[in-house]
Specification:
This protein is α/β, with parallel strands linked by helices. The protein is built from 17 helices and 16 strands. The chain folds into two domains: about 230 residues, Aldehyde Dehydrogenase, Chain A, domain 1, CATH 3.40.605; about 190 residues, 3-Layer(aba) Sandwich (Aldehyde Dehydrogenase, Chain A, domain 2), CATH 3.40.309. The radius of gyration is 25 Å and the shape is globular. The N and C termini lie far apart (about 70 Å). It binds nicotinamide-adenine-dinucleotide (NAD). The site of nicotinamide-adenine-dinucleotide has 28 residues, from helix 7 and helix 8. Nicotinamide-adenine-dinucleotide binds next to helix 7 and helix 8. Belongs to the aldehyde dehydrogenase family.
Length: about 475
Amino acid sequence: MPNDAGSATVMEAILHDQRTAFLRDASPRIAERKARLARLRVAVLSHRTALCKAVDADFGRRSYYETDLMEIVGVIQAIDYLTRNLHRFMRPEKRHVSLVYQGGRAQIIWQPKGVIGVMAPWNYPISLVMIPLATALAAGNRVMVKPSELTPRTSSLIQTILAEVFAKDVVAVILGGAEVGAAFSRLAFDHLLFTGSTSVGHKIMQAASENLVPVTLELGGKSPVIVARGHVTERAVSSIVFGKLSNAGQTCVAPDYALVHEDDLEAFIARFDATVIRTYPDGPTSDDYASIISDRHYERLNALIEDARERRARIIRIGVRPETAADRIRTIAPTLVVAIRSDIAVMREEIFGPILPIMTYRAIGEVIDLINARPRPLALYYFGDDDADRRKVLARTTSGNVGINSTLIHVALDDLPFGGVGASGIGAYHGIEGFRSMSHAKGVFIQRRWNLPSLLRAPFGRLADIALA
Ligand code: NAD
């Protein structure tokens, strides 16, 4: 049930107050923007321990250190990056004035859009609220945030700590589930940034279209990892294990499935198995191995494995032990599903868990065709040192981002735009692209002195002939 803050009337009132406040100060100066970022930084750092503990409790188990590294560090780095680069981002951009218009000046002013809505998922419940929020504040906006209901302790703590440092007409947090999310997405924001599933993304865009609200959609999908022939190296497999098993695979840019040359299949399986055992010596009960967020997702993932078993795929579960206490907090052992057909469930839907299907190939062209026959992924990973093949993959596939000989790290680079394409999303944030997505690029022409176009008025006679001469 929606709580009080999540009722449509209350949300509309908050939006109204934020817009009124925005109109009073529609272009906050750089010092004010930096002060807001500094307040956000202090809020996160002073509640660092509580935030990491809240995520741990919401998941059932997620290592304090994993949250600290993968979320808190990322948020602080993003805030520092925005603060350092704000002056450059805000600088008006000079544009070319062709000969006939000389005497005038053209520029783009990056104007705050107004009130931004931010909707976040549960998988990185701190950073996927805080980084869009920091970006929106840097761009001079007011912000309404709707975190996920699946991490209730974290979301409610975020509400409390943001209320400590921001007046409600600068930042407001709305708590609630899908019903509240639906009402939130119908509000007449000046921009809406949604992070979540592709299926809900459709609904968000539909709702936003009612008020012509521009959207950034950060969605999911099946991100492939290609391992070049003969490239089953220690470094490659360690990086794939890191990308697949951080947060137990509940990462939007986790490698979803692997494409391995048929001659390398057994070597890949053996190395993956050895790397997992080395990295998580206590199997799914290891301290750094996260639980699955909810019973529904736990059952969904087990059903994917069951479906693969029924279809006679080869299934390798790594580090499984007899029933342990950890099993009761929804852990799923790292699982490889080998040599599968593409119509199997685990190859149809986004996995979002510690299951890695492996498909084999004979030539790189097959891999490119297979990827292009599917919806465009959020990330694509290529492990190999063959420049020609790497160039072919880069040029002939389309994905939000690409990691070469690396997984996940591209998201941590503050200066790279992060976003999807096609079914994996619309628009991007991080980098200057984030600042610009939450700013209006206002083109301004200033007529400074007399020139031919400044005399333009009827009767037009043969002015067109002169202009085209
Ligand atoms: P979700 O789409 O179920 O929920 C996201 C947000 O939308 C939540 O705040 C939720 O309350 C709200 N919501 C749910 N149903 C709604 C509805 N019918 N109408 C309006 N709002 C609704 O996603 P999730 O399960 O929280 O997160 C997992 C998904 O998010 C995965 O698909 C993952 O790939 C994707 N994801 C993408 C990124 C990215 O940056 N591209 C990052 C993390 C997660």
